[in-house]
Design brief:
single chain, alpha/beta, Rossmann fold, 7-stranded mixed β-sheet, 6-stranded parallel β-sheet, about 35% helix, globular
């Protein structure tokens, strides 16, 4: 559903008012193409084992990026399970608006679990609603559940997409003519820093002199700043661009216009840059959401511990994948990238294995350390590795 407003009221508020004044027979029509009868129960009220799940996105579902990847995951499970109903709302800001959306999905649509996908939804909004609705399960993408601190009905899921970024870095370095790569990022939070660093470490694993210039725009969707950053990098001789923003569309299109290469993120952006798109780090949220849907239908919960509070996975687990190689990728680059993918599949490649220094020369991973993907230190990352030009402050 689009986040439409009528005389200061959201569409869901209008529906709530109608339901409050109508005893029965009202059907809430959702702009996403889904509908749900107001008299239908949350799960199994019609004698079936059906369940309803709610998905909330901070941007449009067709953004070629973060929101599209999650929407594709929701659509994937909707097509997969005939016992599942999906309700969605897009363009919901990281404000109390998301609280209204969650309440409405629970109260009006009968959602037994909600997936508010944006980073800023977690604190305080998800945490507040989880206290308000202890019988509902709340799953957040990227937030880290803390046992004894957060409500038991809150869970965190994310993927080791930095594995795919590492492989993208290999392709980028082996394609670059200048050895200068560019990374346009939203905010210097651990998930973003991990992608920048892994991309750079992948690049430097095949060409040690490669550098990555990073520019932080300050927010998840800043198309003007993203275009300015991309043009600035092209002017500096950077010839491969990538990003970690909600929608990579502007970055990919700007790179293509400037005649330089790009690697994508979140979803496949190949159609935006037919000549210069090399590959990309893509999510496959259908894998994650399928497991959650099946567990919820089976009666498992976060509260009783039968669903883990923290769920993570990488290439091996099917949480993420690499975009198909573009026409500019050489056979040599494909071979090197495929070798790294195979190592991620068999678990033999560890990205953060000492010695690793940050870009100020400080050792952040000692020669004796091997930080595997599930190591909590990686989810607290606050540095940029050697080879990255930029600062987290």
């Amino acid at each position: 559903m689009s986040n439409q407003r009528f005389l200061g009221l959201s569409r869901r508020q209008v529906i709530r008012g109608l339901l409050a004044t109508t005893a029965f027979g009202v059907t809430a029509k959702l702009g996403t193409g889904c509908s749900r009868s107001a008299s239908e129960g949350a799960s199994g009220a019609d004698g079936s084992d059906s369940i309803t799940l709610g998905f909330i996105y901070v941007g449009p579902k067709d953004d070629y990026g973060y929101n599209q990847a999650h929407a594709e995951g929701a659509a994937g499970i909707a097509a997969k399970y005939n016992w599942l109903t999906i309700v969605e709302e897009a363009n919901v800001p990281e404000t109390t608006s998301v609280e209204e959306s969650m309440r409405s999905m629970i109260d009006l649509d009968g959602a037994v679990a909600v997936f508010p996908t944006s980073f800023g939804y977690f604190d305080p909004h998800i945490l507040k609603l989880a206290e308000e609705y202890p019988e509902v399960q709340f799953f957040h993408c990227g937030g880290l559940y803390q046992d004894g601190v957060h409500p038991k009905n809150v869970g965190s899921y994310y993927g080791y997409i930095d594995e795919a970024q590492y492989v993208s870095g290999i392709v980028a370095a082996m394609t670059s003519k200048t050895g200068k790569l560019g990374f346009i990022a939203a905010k210097p939070i651990p998930q973003v820093l991990r992608n920048i660093n892994s991309f750079t470490l992948g690049a430097r694993s095949v060409k040690p002199e490669t550098t990555t210039q990073v520019i932080f725009t300050g927010n998840w969707a800043e198309p003007v700043k993203e275009a300015e950053a991309a043009n600035s990098m092209a002017d500096q001789g950077i010839d491969v661009l990538t990003c970690h923003v909600d929608s990579p569309k502007v970055v990919m299109e700007t790179a293509e216009r400037r005649g330089i290469f790009s690697t994508g993120y979140h979803a496949n952006q190949a159609e935006l840059a037919a000549k210069g798109y090399l590959t990309g780090a893509e999510w496959d949220w259908t894998t994650v959401y399928s497991k959650y849907a099946e567990d919820i239908r089976a009666g498992k919960t976060l509260t009783d511990g039968s669903i883990p509070h923290v769920v993570r996975g990488g290439i091996k687990e099917g949480f993420c994948k690499l975009s198909d190689y573009g026409p500019a990728v050489s056979a040599e680059a494909k071979q090197a990238a495929d070798a790294a993918l195979a190592q991620f599949q068999d678990g033999s490649l560890v990205i953060y294995k000492g010695e690793v220094k940050d870009n100020t020369g400080k050792v952040v991973v000692t020669s004796a350390e091997e930080l595997k993907q599930q190591d909590p230190k990686l989810e607290q990352m606050n540095y940029l590795v050697e080879g990255v030009i930029g600062s987290v402050s």
